[in-house]
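Structure ticket #2291
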Amino acid sequence: MNRSTGSKRRRADNLSAYLMMTPGFALYAVFVFLPMLWVLYISFTSYDGAGTPRWVGLDNFAYALKDQVWWNAVWNTFIFALFKILIEAPLALILAIILNKKVFAANWFRTIFFLPHLVSMAVMGVIFYFLLRPVDGVINGVLEMLHLIGAPVDFLGSPFWSMTCLILIGIWSGFGVNMIYFLIGLQTIPKELYECADLEGASETRKLIRITIPMLGPIFSIIVMMMIVYTLKTFDIVKVLTDGGPYGKTEIMFTYIYRYFFSDSMTSQQQGYGSALSIIATVIIGVISVLYFRMQRKTQHQE
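Resolution: structure written out below.
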């Protein structure tokens, strides 16, 4: 095969690859890229969803900097994400380590723990609403039957309990899939390392600290990165269960943004301002993700 024939074949292969990518790229452009450009544009306008957007420059962003309710929502998002990740990641890791051993009905437990991830968060919110409500709620009924409480607890009407319930439900819905990721990581660790440790008489704790956790480092950082992004984007479970209440104590970034796109009793429809908040939320998530990524790289270089 001469050089000219090889070059023609490469061009034909490249053309075929571009043609195969075109439908996917076209769909991405229409349903993702163009809406993003539209959101960016109207974030600089005053626009209520009807008529012609009026250009206001950076006014929406300047107003957002002074919007105390917005920054409370950002703070609530951080609280929700922090406690969810701090509890969920170790829980998923511990269960993965246990189920990676030859324990009774391990496959059944893996399936049971993974099942909540398959349920829609909106459906899950409706189910937990009926479980947690103070009147005729299943959980209040059980606690009263066991004489653990004297009167029904308003789980979704209390500032403390509402956020606590959201965090626990978020953990319940997410730990199963992260456990599966950890299990995949555990199965890539060479068994010879544990056999050498056994010959040296290492305890299970020492093997965990010296072998398992270091070898899981790369996949652990990826899982935590995914948890950060996914948790900061939480919307549906909060919208269905508390809708930001009581008194805004569970208001998070995307439930607050939702109010400006789809008007309710608290705010009027201001899609221009809602778009500006969306841009700020995206920047916040991006900055946190980059900081975490850089911290991970620095830690790996030090090791």
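Closing remark: The beta strands are 45-46, 54-55.
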